[in-house]
UniProtKB/TrEMBL annotation:
UniProt GO cellular component terms: nucleus; ribonucleoprotein complex
Protein name in UniProt: Uncharacterized protein
Main location: nucleus
Protein localization: Nucleus
Biased composition (Basic residues): 314-343
Region of interest: Disordered: 312-343
InterPro entries xref list: La_dom_prot, La_HTH, La_xRRM, Lupus_La, Nucleotide-bd_a/b_plait_sf, RBD_domain_sf, RRM_dom, WH-like_DNA-bd_sf
Length: 343
């Protein structure tokens, strides 16, 4: 019958070879592959600090593993090596297996940032059996104060989450099922994205309201033959030849079949149109149909133009702030280099 020491050894070794740890433990996988039958020497296993902290006696470890009810790990004949039981292989359906793990996993937040993993595992034993405690970390392996806890059953996970209060060193833990945690996280990300999008659209709208565009200044041209090689400059030059008309922008790319010309002054498009014969602009061999936009067509195009212009101005403004920030950061770096802080 297994005593307390045996149970700790069994739990630790079965964690190493378990469905959760083994697929992501590159060191242990390498050791398994070095033996054609998957045996790992006990002296290698004793390099695992958490097992060595429980016992460094190979004989004690072997005798404990032989008392395991799960029989996940087996011992070789001369009791010098162990391996995962070939009759209990790691699940191959990773997606399905991860889903099942999530169903019996809980999320807990509120652990002090200096908490040791063994202390958290020992704390969670009272709510178990627990298969695994995974500390969540960020850069430089810094503990974030939260864990994913895989319970033996889904019922145990739910019981832990649904308790009125769970305190770790007098600190109440925030708890939820891992599935709910991911759902809430996804919702939070979507809400932040939408808030960012709304803020950006509001800034663009505010900028657009400050831009004034003249009416009667948009000329639309169409009917360009496919494969033509007209350029914006050619279109601008042709319009200049027709009178004192200042073109601000030609909304057209080489190869397009239609486009727009935006004039600088009010009613320039209307006045320019009056200079044409049969509403056609002749450029070289091309006769292009044109018209001055008015009414709803003009409103829609101006609204679209204002949005584009406001977006570009906002980008330029943000770029300017970024450059200023980089410049100030560079100046600070130079100051620190000249006058280093004394420790």
């Amino acid at each position: 019958m297994a005593n307390d020491l045996d149970k700790k050894i069994i739990k630790q070794v079965e964690y190493y070879f378990g469905d959760i740890n083994l697929p992501r433990d590159q060191f242990l996988q390498k050791q398994i592959k070095e033996d054609e039958n998957g045996w790992v020497p006990l002296d290698v296993m004793l390099k695992f600090n958490r097992l060595a902290a429980i016992s460094k006696d190979s004989q004690v470890i072997v005798e404990a593993l032989e008392k395991s009810e799960e029989k996940l790990v087996e011992v070789n004949e001369d009791k010098t090596k162990i391996r995962r039981n070939p009759d209990k292989p790691v699940p191959e359906n990773k997606e399905g297996h991860l889903k099942k793990l999530q169903e019996r996993s809980a999320y807990a937040k509120g652990f002090p940032l200096d908490s040791e993993l063994n202390d958290i595992i020992n704390f969670m034993d009272q709510y178990g059996p627990v298969e695994s405690v995974i500390r969540r970390t960020e850069k430089e392996n810094k503990f974030k104060g939260s864990c994913f806890i895989v319970f033996k059953t889904q019922e145990l996970a739910k019981q832990f989450v649904e308790l009125d209060t769970v305190k770790y060193k007098d600190i109440a833990l925030l708890r939820k099922m891992q599935i709910d945690y991911y759902a809430d996280k996804k919702k939070d990300i979507e809400e932040r994205k939408q808030a960012k999008k709304d803020k950006k659209e509001a800034l663009i709208k505010e900028t657009a309201q400050k831009i004034e565009l003249p009416n009667g200044a948009i000329l639309q041209f169409s009917g360009l033959p496919e494969g033509q090689q007209l350029t914006r400059e050619e279109i601008k030059e042709k319009i200049r030849e027709s009178g004192d008309f200042e073109v601000v922008y030609v909304d057209y790319n080489k190869g397009d079949l239609d486009g727009y010309v935006r004039f600088a002054k009010e009613n320039n498009a209307v006045d320019f149109f009056k200079t044409l014969t049969d509403g056609e602009l002749v450029i070289g061999e091309h006769k292009i149909k044109v018209k001055a936009l008015e009414g709803e067509e003009e409103k829609q195009y101006l609204a679209k133009t204002l949005e584009v212009m406001a977006t570009q101005r906002q980008k330029q403004k943000n770029y300017g702030k970024k450059r200023k920030g980089n410049f100030n950061s560079g100046k600070k770096h130079l100051r620190n280099a000249k006058h280093p802080k004394k420790n």
